[in-house]
Amino acid sequence: MKGVFDTKPRSGYDDEIAFRYHFPKQYRSDADAMVGDRIVYREPQRNGGRRAYVATAKVLRVFDDMSRPGFAYAAVGEFREFDAPVPFSDNGRYCEADLRKIGDRTRVGAYLQGKSVRTLSEPDFAAIARAGLAETLSPSNAIRLELDEAHVDEPTQALLRLPMEEQERRIEQILMNRKIREAGFRRKVCEAYDNRCAVTGLRIVNGGGKAEAQAAHIWPVAAGGPDVVQNGIALSATVHWLFDRHLISLTDEYRILVSHNKVPSELRVLFEKQMERIHLPPDPRLWPERSYVARHRDIFSSL
């Protein structure tokens, strides 16, 4: 069963929404029903939330919080941030069927009290998820996101050519498609870094809007890392190659570390300013998560 998890900044719960959602046991039966299926995360307006749906994830299992009686966790995977927040309502029409049934809009807030975990219909989930991926799926972005015919196979092209209503019906295939997932991650990371390599500072964008910079994962998805901007860094192709092989890494202050005895001599000119801080996004909330950087550095140090 599909569902909604409300998540608030500074909520006091032990959330790390790319991995786990913390909730009171009053929601346990609804959460149990969602195991094996997908949810959308919504931020209410309280505590500075965006009053919008912001991501989707798959509920893997639900288990008790042994350190805090009366609470439980939902472990999640396949976390996917939306390209942009999807508004809670659009021109007065709510995204959730149960809310559309409420005749008096002033009663919606009261209705949601005590329903931070709630079920969601399949069509409503599909519409929210498709709206959340609108920029990635837009044909106008195909070249810059490498979703054009030169970069994706025919099954992926077929998904991208579908009209929006049919894409909603195929939303599970879209969410599972690796090329589409990677394209969404690339867009968010490169935009956060203004399409500039964080190490060299080089910014090249071709006529189709495609940046020379690539989106590198700090903690690889294959090893459990999430597809979030804070787990990414924009790097030119050569620097990306070195970073993926842990021949370069970062300090906790985002300064460059170089394994000089392993980096090819002709590439060392890229790191003449070793220990200088990399170029970071203007928004500090999008800077690399230090715990992910530490994972990468641990492997760098062990080689």
UniProtKB/TrEMBL annotation:
Pfam families: HNH_2. Keywords: Endonuclease, Hydrolase, Nuclease. Residues 197-250 form the HNH nuclease domain. GO terms for molecular function: endonuclease activity. InterPro entries: HNH_nuc. This is HNH endonuclease.
